Amino acid sequence: MDFIDYYKTLEIDQKATSEEIKKAYRKLARKHHPDLNSKNEQAKVNFQRINEANSVLSDPEKRKKYDKYGKDWKHSEEFEKAKQYQASGQNQSKRQTRGGQSTADFSDFFESMFGGASGSGRQVKYRGEDFLASLELSLLDAYKTHKQTLNVNGKNIRITIPAGIENGQTIKIAGHGGPGMSGGPNGDLYISFTIDKHNDFRRLGNDLYATAELNLYKAILGGELTINTLDGKVKLTVKPETQYGNQVKLKAKGFPVYKKDGEFGDLVVTYTIKLPTALTDKEKELFTELSKL
Asked: 264 - beta bridge partners?
């Protein structure tokens, strides 16, 4: 298998922080997303590679193994067992040194473990391949915990998606990857999520941002205004002399916090003001009088 440089795939340095990895992934995932490049087959390939790189580098344990073993990182456990097995003196294929003390060429031993040879007669168990998938959700889908059925390699898998899942987040479904060999465990399934933009709400972390339009009279005199949230309608009290761009924060009316039941971010509403048009002569006269006061 050819070596894939995951750092190069995400266009980051090997010393990149977790935040830098997340930022790079989101940028490239948007750029190469199949929905935005429906006629570009290479974009689909790039998108899969980006998801694969992110699933490894965003996981501290996997990243550590990848940095140490490169393309063989998935077999790191077998590698370490082979190393311990050699050191214990149980390998019957050790070479004799001039002093009579037995040693071994570790590279040959590793090759025998992973290349199919059986110098000790032991059968090596191989872990199955990890599968990578991507799933697109609407903001409303991500707002509530729900179930979906995915078809992965011809097999239907029922998963529960927790409320508050983030754009670019990857979750692991243990044991739903490729089958193991020689009695080894199955691989895992990694699902990366893309959250679509909403027409009325913008999400930043667990907070939501929206705009609400006031007519000139309500902005000046104050009053009540009914607005939509993702959890239904709420009434706002508009203060007199509200200015364009003023904001009001609605506590716990934002997005649910991932895997923390009952915790929500805030909804920040920014006011805009719509000026009246098609004024009657009387209205113009009244505005003229006001302008002279």
From this structure: 256
The CATH number given to whatever domain includes residue 269 is 2.60.260.20
Least trusted range by pLDDT, from 108-122, 257-271, 276-290: 108-122
Using CA of residue 127, residue 115, residue 74, residue 6, what is the dihedral sign? negative
CA–CA separation, 256 and 106 (whole Å): 52
Write down the pLDDT at residue 123.
Answer: 65
- Map tokens 């009001």 to a residue: 248
Element (H, E) at 53: helix 41-57
Distance of CA 97 to the CA centre of its chain: 53
| Whole-Å CA distances, 197 to 90, 221, 225, 241, 279 | 59, 34, 25, 33, 37
CA torsion, ordered 132, 123, 108, 111, to nearest 10 deg: -20
**Total domains present in the chain:** 1
In whole angstroms, what is the distance from residue 211 CA to residue 271 CA?
6
Predicted structure pTM score: 0.60
Taking each helix axis as running N to C, give the angle between helix 60-69 and helix 76-87, from 0 to 180 degrees, rounded to the nearest 10.
60
Take residue 193 and report the two structure tokens written for it. 């999520």
Residue 76 lies in a domain: no
Domain assignment present for 154:
no
128 φ, ψ to 5°? Answer: -70, 165
Q: Can you give the residue range of the structural domain that contains 282? A: 202-292
- Chain centroid to CA 221: 46
Of the candidates 255, 35, 234, which has an alpha carbon nearest to the alpha carbon of residue 143? 255
Please, what is the Cα angle at 255 between 252 and 259, to 5 degrees? 100
Closest CA to 255 of 213, 186, 211, 195: 195
Residue 115 reports pLDDT greater than 50 = no
The arithmetic mean of pLDDT across residues 261-285, rounded, is: 95
Residue 224 in contact with residue 233, Cβ under 8 Å?
Answer: no
Tell me the average pLDDT across 209-220. 96
Q: Give Cβ neighbours of residue 210 (< 8 Å, ≥ 6 apart).
A: 200, 201, 202, 227, 228, 267, 268, 269, 270
